[in-house]
Design goal:
28% of the residues lie in helices and 32% in strands. The chain is an alpha+beta fold and 145 residues long. It has one domain (2-138): Sandwich (Immunoglobulin-like). The strands form 2 sheets. A 4-stranded antiparallel sheet has the order 1-2-7-6, with no helix packed on it. A 3-stranded antiparallel sheet has the order 3-4-5. The two termini are 27 Å apart.
Length: 145
């Protein structure tokens, strides 16, 4: 029974931390309107127990220039924002056949923990942003005598 108490005492702080994460994610997903452009993935990467959490966001940004993407992203007060302007193309399309959407968009994502580092990568038209949790700010240890 004593071993079970040790396990429970180790697991409770971890679960309490994820409760906040999933509450914020639920708020974000409940506020989604019918505008689902551009498509994106939002997921936690697997990490070791002792490593900080990593939340990754992948957004389809095909057709946008790398420099425009760099200028269109920001992170402030726990909100990641990407805003892209419409891309004007001077092509003559065959029979009006133009299926690629180069329209502008703005998306905001609330990140549910303090962020220590942002890792940004653009590969094959996918912008991947990884938010690394700052565990020093989320864990406050007080010793009581």
């Amino acid at each position: 029974m004593n071993d079970m108490n040790k396990i429970i005492n180790q697991v409770i702080p971890i679960l309490a931390n994820f409760d906040v994460v999933f509450t914020h994610l639920n708020e974000e997903f409940s506020n989604i309107n019918s505008n689902n452009y551009p498509p994106y993935n939002l997921y936690f990467e697997e990490t070791e127990e002792t490593e900080p959490a990593k939340l990754s966001l992948e957004i389809a940004v095909a057709g946008f220039e790398k420099e425009d993407i760099k200028n269109g992203i920001s992170f402030k007060d726990g909100i990641f924002c990407i805003e892209m302007k419409k891309v004007e193309r001077n092509f003559k399309y065959l029979n009006g056949h133009n299926k690629l959407a180069f329209r502008g968009f703005k998306k905001n994502f609330r990140i549910p923990f303090n962020v220590k580092e942002l890792i940004v990568n653009i590969n094959n038209g996918i912008l991947k942003v990884t938010f690394v949790q700052d565990i020093d700010k989320d864990i406050n240890i007080n010793f009581v005598d």
